[in-house]
């Protein structure tokens, strides 16, 4: 094994140990709201959870994390933590039309009912990982398919991909599509129907034809309504973390 490979293996093992021994226990004992449900947005430097409104994208990220905790062999109550997050998320964020609202209060009261593509993407991703480790939850694939079909019915862009919101807002963004791409692949791995593969293929094609600058090879962030780079500086922005 090369020195570089040895270093990477060591870093991987250190990261896994940190997640299992420090992160997951802290996120469950302090980061979970054991009284009201769901997960807090922040833990302060003093180690105390910070009370604040809760974004739709944070809850499925923690759902994802505790599903992965089970896959990594965490000896803690990952199943309890996962169910804890699912119960709050599905009961507080789901709108009557199947979309996920943007923001709720710490007690679950809706604060912002808008539909944001980024939030829907993380919802689909979190549900996919939960479905992989909780096969008995047959409701999760059904909920995900309903949300995906709602995206196609309401937010589908006429060229490819999806609009940001209803009513339409600009610029269009590549970032939510990155998460929709990983969500669709996660559902393929979870045994989802053929439309998940089709969604992944469409987004991959959108990345190859629109997102990635053919000259620099950089993946842009912002676009006009026809998937052309947004005018001005916005159309030239490339974020390293999204490459």
Provide an overview of this structure.
The chain is mainly α and 243 residues long. It has seven helices and seven strands, in the order H-E-E-E-H-H-E-E-H-H-E-H-H-E. The protein has helices at 3-29, 58-72, 78-92, 117-133, 139-154, 175-189, 194-211, and strands spanning 42-43, 49-50, 54-55, 103-104, 110-112, 172-173, 222-223. A three-stranded antiparallel beta sheet has the order 3-4-5, with no helix packed on it. Strands 1-2 form a two-stranded antiparallel sheet. A hairpin with a 5-residue loop joins strand 1 and strand 2 (49-50). The longest helix is centred in the first third of the chain and has 27 residues, at 3-29. The chain is globular. The model has no long low-confidence stretch (mean pLDDT 96).
Indicate the topology.
Elements: H1 3-29, E1 42-43, E2 49-50, E3 54-55, H2 58-72, H3 78-92, E4 103-104, E5 110-112, H4 117-133, H5 139-154, E6 172-173, H6 175-189, H7 194-211, E7 222-223
Antiparallel strand pairs: 1-2, 3-4, 4-5, 6-7
Question: Unreliable stretches, pLDDT < 50, 5 or more residues?
Answer: none
> What general outline do the C-alpha atoms trace?
globular
Q: How much of the sequence is in beta strands?
A: 5-15%
Largest sheet: 3 strands, antiparallel
The radius of gyration over CA amounts to 19 Å
How far apart the termini lie comes to 28 Å
Task: Give the helix/strand class.
Answer: mainly alpha
**Mean pLDDT figure:** 96
């Amino acid at each position: 094994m090369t020195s570089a490979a040895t270093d990477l293996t060591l870093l991987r093992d250190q990261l896994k140990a940190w997640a299992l021994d420090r992160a997951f226990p802290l996120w469950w004992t302090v980061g979970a709201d054991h009284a009201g449900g769901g997960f807090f947005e922040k833990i302060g430097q003093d180690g105390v959870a910070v009370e604040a409104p809760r974004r739709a994208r944070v809850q499925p990220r923690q759902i994802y994390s505790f599903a992965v905790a089970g896959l990594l062999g965490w000896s803690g109550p990952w199943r309890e933590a996962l169910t804890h997050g699912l119960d709050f998320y599905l009961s507080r964020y789901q709108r009557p039309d199947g979309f996920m609202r943007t923001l709720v209060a710490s007690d679950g009261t809706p604060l912002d009912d808008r539909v944001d593509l980024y939030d829907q993407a993380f919802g689909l991703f979190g549900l996919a990982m939960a479905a992989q480790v909780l096969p008995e939850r047959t409701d999760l694939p059904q909920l995900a398919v309903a949300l995906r079909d709602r995206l196609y019915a309401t937010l589908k862009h006429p060229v490819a991909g999806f609009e940001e919101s209803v009513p339409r807002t600009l610029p269009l963004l590549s970032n939510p599509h990155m998460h929709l791409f990983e969500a669709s692949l996660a559902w393929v791995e979870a045994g989802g129907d053929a439309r998940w593969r089709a969604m992944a293929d469409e987004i991959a094609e959108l990345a190859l034809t629109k997102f990635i600058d053919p000259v620099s090879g950089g993946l842009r962030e912002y676009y006009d309504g026809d998937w052309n780079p947004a005018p001005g500086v916005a159309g030239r922005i490339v974020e390293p973390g999204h490459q």
